[in-house]
Amino acid sequence: MRGKNSQSGKTYPVQSLFCALLGGFLVLAGLGHVSVLRQEFLAQVPTWLHVNRDQVVVISGIVEIILGVGLIILPGKYRAIAGWTTAAFFVLIFPGNISQFINRIDAFGLNSDLSRFLRLFFQPVLVVWALWSSGAWQTWRDGKRMRATTK
Q1: Residue 56 lies in a domain
Q2: How far apart are CA 148 and CA 61, in angstroms?
Q3: Residue 27 is part of which domain span?
């Protein structure tokens, strides 16, 4: 499904609904980072990162809240930018999921090798969800098409 006017970042209602859902999930996850679920999120910070792991959890939680709010409230082309940024964030945190799998760290009910392995396949779904629901893909494709026709 493509946006009606992707150059202005316009999306279909179903895309907007899924964008708001993703934004809501990000806000809730971000709040979890800075509150009662902090220990669970610590399990996803790669052990090879030589940083204050608690600070990483708090900072990534704040980033998630900002991204989530952006996906919910930003209009048009700004929502597409938020979609690209959210997709990039999901790519950047993927090593944490890999680390949780490799190091067999239990968190969020992922207490078996199989569940941690299957979780790895959800990250690309989140990337696609962010790009599609925000209209980011379509905005990029329309811009690419427009540049091709003006050459």
Answers
A1: yes
A2: 40
A3: 11-149
Classify residue 49 by its DSSP letter: -
**Measured on CA atoms in the order 36, 39, 45, 50, is the torsion positive or negative?**
positive
Query: Which tens digits make up the pLDDT trace of 65-93?
Result: 999 999 999 998 899 999 999 999 999 99
Looking at every residue in the chain, the average pLDDT score rounds to 88
Residues 14-21, mean pLDDT to the nearest whole number:
96
- Give CA–CA dist 109/86, Å, rounded: 24
Tens digits of residue pLDDT in 19-66: 999 999 999 999 999 998 888 898 889 988 889 999 999 999 999 999
Is 25 exposed, middle or buried (CB count within 10 Å of its CB: 0-12, 13-18, 19+)? middle
pTM of the model: 0.86
Cα distances (angstroms) measured from residue 121 to each of 86, 101, 114, 127, 131:
17, 12, 11, 11, 17
Q: Is residue 1 part of a domain?
A: no
Dihedral of the CA atoms 25, 30, 34, 38 (nearest 10)?
70
Answer for the pair 3, 11: CB distance below 8 angstroms, yes or no.
yes
- Considering the domain boundaries, does residue 107 fall inside one? yes
Report pLDDT for 86.
Answer: 98
Separation of alpha carbons 34 and 39, rounded Å: 10
